[in-house]
Amino acid sequence: MKINVEFDITPEEARRVLGLPDLEPMQQRILAELEGRMTQYLNVIDPETIFKQWLPMGIQGGLQGFEKFQDFLWSAASSVRGGGKRKPDAKDEPK
Question: How far apart are CA 73 and CA 59, in angstroms?
């Protein structure tokens, strides 16, 4: 024997039937507090400081920082495959 019971109720009604607490007021207070703190933090922080924190080499390294990072990736890949140093490309050769 198979019995199917289907309830057509909203999540709010299901919460009340199961006796679960209403957390929406608390969630709204927490979100408002977080929004206030984020807004306050963004008003006092310098965008350059954010980039320095996000990017390990900072934005002052420019192309040199990118080349160092690329060399790091090449050496890591070479050590994984058991090879030595990176072979220079045609563009790497002095002119």
Answer: 19
Question: With helix as H, strand as E and coil as C, how does the chain read?
Answer: CCCCCCCCCCHHHHHHHHCCCCCHHHHHHHHHHHHHHHHHHHHHCCHHHHHHHHCCCCCCCHHHHHHHHHHHHHHHHHHHHCCCCCCCCHHHCCC
Flag whether the pTM goes above 0.85.
no
Q: What is the pLDDT of residue 45?
A: 75
Residues of the chain under the 50 pLDDT cut: 58-59
Amino acid 3 reads: I
